[in-house]
Write a structure and sequence with these properties.
This protein is of the alpha+beta class and 244 residues long. The chain is built from 11 helices and 4 strands; from the N terminus they run H-H-E-H-H-E-H-H-E-H-E-H-H-H-H. Strands 1-2-4-3 form a 4-stranded antiparallel beta sheet, sandwiched between helices. It is globular.
């Protein structure tokens, strides 16, 4: 155990922030850490947009499902997968039509996620809290219009950053045997791991809600089984991602 591992183990999503600002020095350190994240073939296929215009914040909050903390957090960032910049660089030395492949789409999405997670860890190391905002993909066309995203750029998620004004319980994760296997995937381990985690998460939910809820993990996952954001494929095609 060391200080970094201890910090990682204490991660919690923070949705309530004090009015204390995130300083320019803190934001600079967070973005510097983000840029040091691993990136496929040094493509650095992501961009991050800091939303400082409060009217724009309000519009994005509405589009993301009326999540108030988007407006209330001192810093709100939108992390984008960005193949536009790569194309502009490559075109200086590549005369054929630029390919739009599923692999490059994956690279952009992964690069954005890796950079954002570096930023999250850096923020938490400074005593700040963060929460990811997947709702930024609820209405991605409108978000892209507001942010003036060019072709081959799409918003992956948002991130609120600020000084925590709450101390939620640390949400337990799946048992190790459900996520780590040696040499081959172990289907035989899954059912018992789900049973164990259902009990653990049910107890957590009961404690977190003061007895008002005790939904098990498998119940929550059943709620994710229906169609979710099925508009993303058509949106990505409009943004120029052919996914060939």
């Amino acid at each position: 155990m060391n200080e970094m591992i201890a910090l990682l183990k204490q991660h919690r999503s923070i949705r309530k922030f004090t009015k204390d600002p995130v300083t320019e020095q803190q934001l600079d350190a967070i973005l510097t850490a983000a840029q040091q994240a691993s990136t496929s073939s040094n493509m650095q296929a992501y961009s991050v947009i800091g939303i400082t215009d409060m009217e724009l914040r309000r519009e994005l909050a509405k589009l993301a499902g009326n999540q108030a903390y988007i407006e209330e957090s001192p810093v709100f960032l939108v992390w984008c997968a960005d193949l536009y910049r790569w194309e502009q660089a490559a075109k200086r030395h590549y005369d054929d039509e630029m390919p739009s492949t599923t692999e490059n789409f994956i690279i952009g999405t992964v690069d954005a996620a890796l950079a954002a997670q570096n930023a999250a860890i850096a923020a938490e190391s400074l005593g700040l809290g963060i929460v990811y905002i997947g709702g930024i993909r609820n209405q991605p066309e409108q978000v892209s219009e507001f942010l003036q995203l060019p072709q081959h750029v799409y918003p992956v998620f948002g991130m609120c950053i600020g000084v925590p004004d709450q101390s939620p319980l640390n949400r337990p994760r799946l048992p190790r045997q459900a996520v780590y296997f040696e040499n081959t995937y172990k289907q035989c381990a899954i059912d018992s791991a789900i049973d164990t985690y259902d009990e653990t998460l049910s107890a957590y939910m009961k404690a977190r809600s003061n007895g008002k809820a005790n939904r098990a993990w498998s119940q929550a996952m059943a709620g994710k089984a229906g169609p979710v954001r099925i508009h993303m494929r058509s949106f990505l095609e409009k943004q120029g991602f052919k996914l060939e």
